[in-house]
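Below is a typical protein record.
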Amino acid sequence: MMEHQGSKSSEARQRAEDKFTKAKKRDAEVMDFQRQRQNAEQAKLERLRALRLAKEAADRESLAKAEAEAALAAPKAKPRKAKRPKTEPVSQETL
């Protein structure tokens, strides 16, 4: 009878260890899956950031080019002569 009880407890122990092993394996698979998703998300963000930076650089370059073309196309303004202040005629009385 004792032998029968020992057999039951060893079977129960084995089942528990099997469940624990399966749970550990499942947890490892879930963590691996999450790590893969994180890496994919990180790669996507890096790619989008690189695209955004490239677009911003291209926009700055095209703006600078447009400004340079506008400066060349604009008519050059001639400097105006400074106006002399009007002086009042000198009257004979002030002399």
